[in-house]
């Protein structure tokens, strides 16, 4: 399975205030079926505990598929897409502004670009 690096940047300007929002993801990795992987997403430019933080993926030639979301900073369990429950684990490290997605026992159909999003 191939997992690709993605850097999402949004720049906002309002009343002379400059704010750069960045979600910087871990580098691409190549895994074989049955292996596990843990991808990270470093948040900067906003307080992630004010948002739901989610993960989506896009398999080659396909549309976006929602994996799940975390109500950041809350004690609530993450929400997962019904079709993917049990395949992924979403976690976070609030003090470090990090979001994580872990997949165990990868399958060929898990080959995709994985995006973190707010």
TrEMBL record:
One of its GO terms (biological process) is immunoglobulin mediated immune response. The keyword Transcription regulation does not apply. InterPro entries: Ig-like_dom, Ig-like_dom_sf, Ig-like_fold, Ig_V-set, IgHV. Keywords: Adaptive immunity, Immunity, Immunoglobulin. GO terms for molecular function: antigen binding. Pfam families: V-set (PF07686). GO terms for cellular component: extracellular region; immunoglobulin complex. PROSITE patterns: IG_LIKE. Residues 34-118 form the Ig-like domain. Gene3D superfamilies: Immunoglobulins. This is Immunoglobulin heavy variable 2-3. It comes from Lepisosteus oculatus (Spotted gar).
């Amino acid at each position: 399975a191939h997992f690709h690096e993605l850097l999402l940047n949004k720049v906002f300007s309002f009343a002379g205030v400059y704010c750069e929002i960045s979600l910087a993801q871990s580098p691409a990795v190549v895994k074989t079926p049955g292996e596990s992987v843990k991808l990270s997403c470093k948040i900067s430019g906003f307080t992630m505990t004010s948002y739901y933080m989610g993960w989506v993926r896009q398999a080659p030639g396909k549309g976006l598929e929602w994996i799940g979301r975390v109500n950041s900073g809350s004690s609530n369990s993450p929400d997962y897409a019904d079709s993917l429950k049990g395949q992924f684990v979403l976690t976070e490290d609030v003090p470090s502004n990090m979001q994580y997605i872990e997949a165990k026992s990868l399958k060929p159909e898990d080959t995709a670009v994985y995006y973190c999003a707010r």
